[in-house]
Design goal:
alpha/beta, Nucleotidyltransferase, domain 5, seven-stranded mixed sheet, MULE_transposase_dom, MULE transposase domain-containing protein
Length: about 160
């Protein structure tokens, strides 16, 4: 367990989990506000991959969702790995769609490929369609509805498969 000084951040894990996460080429990170202790704002989890399964390895209790908090938590995680002689250099980091976490990942892991979760991307697009007045059209069975819904599959395509 590591507790941040000025920011009230608490990371919990085991040596085995740090080793597993460090050896994973693909890390999934996700936060929840629903299941967390009373005095923390968010529980953020970091998962490693094994046989196409995500294994939770590190649990971070965070006081807010500011970029400085995410950056500090990621730095603490790297520090914990270094203390055990593990190198946390993932090729791909997949996380929920949040600008603050995106900036923090780019800062702490500049060489990693960073992707947003398709579920969260779709959720954001759906909210935007509602904001700009396309909610009724999206729900209908029209040609426009089919066209709008096709956008949700774009993140799954390779770049060369998408047409102009």
């Amino acid at each position: 367990m590591e507790i941040g000084e000025s920011l009230q951040i608490c990371l919990t894990t085991t040596v085995e989990n740090l080793n597993f996460l460090s050896s994973s080429t693909y890390i999934l990170a996700d936060g929840t506000f629903q299941f967390r202790p009373r005095y923390f704002y968010q529980l953020y989890t970091f998962h490693g991959t094994w046989n196409e399964h995500f294994i939770p390895c590190v649990f971070a209790l965070l006081p807010n969702k500011k970029e400085t908090t995410y950056t500090r938590a990621l730095q603490m995680l790297r520090h914990m790995c270094r203390e055990k002689n593990f190198s946390l250099h993932s090729e791909l980091i997949h996380f929920d769609l949040e600008d603050a976490m995106l900036s923090s990942c780019r800062h702490v892991f500049p060489d990693a490929k960073i992707k947003a979760c398709n579920f969260h991307v779709g959720q954001t697009w759906h909210k935007k369609l509602q904001q700009i007045g396309f909610a009724a059209e999206f729900q209908s069975n029209s040609e426009t509805s089919t066209w709008l819904k096709s956008f949700f599959g774009l993140p799954a395509l390779d770049l060369h498969e998408a047409e102009d």
